[in-house]
Specification:
With 141 residues, this protein is of the alpha+beta class. It has a domain at 48-79 and 90-141: Ribosomal protein L16/L10 (Aldehyde Oxidoreductase, domain 3, Alpha-Beta Complex), CATH 3.90.1170. The chain is 23% helix and 27% strand. It contains 3 helices and 7 strands. The protein has helices at 46-60, 113-125, 137-140; strands at residues 34-38, 42-45, 65-68, 74-78, 91-99, 104-109, 131-135. The longest helix is centred in the middle third of the chain and has 15 residues, at 46-60.
Amino acid sequence: MLEPAKLKHRKAHRNRSARRGAATRGARLAFGSIGLKTTESGEVTARQIEAARKAMTHSVQRGGKIWIRVFPHTPVSKKAAEVPMGAGKGSLEYYGQTINAGTILFEMDGLPEASAREALRLAGHKLPLKTKIIVSLTLSA
């Protein structure tokens, strides 16, 4: 699973306000010829990214090339069930990333369009956000 190697602070704010608006960075295909783009904002965990990656890799059977365009930098803490208020912030549960609408999550290249579309469709089902598949003009022409 993806996890930052080193953090300046062990616990951080979730930055929920950053989920508003469309993405300005990471909104265009940069590496591959087909990609998976979010159509809504939200949060993606390291486990969800890994599940989507595994679904894609399994579908294409180690063919082509896959780029993961997001990384879970933010540590998310959680308090145990039925713990009273106060007594500090909870312990670290997982790493996540706030995603804006329009962000490219995955890109692929080196595969026929039909198999790449199927792999990205399967990956989209593993994510908590609505997604769409986008194709560069060079592949469809």
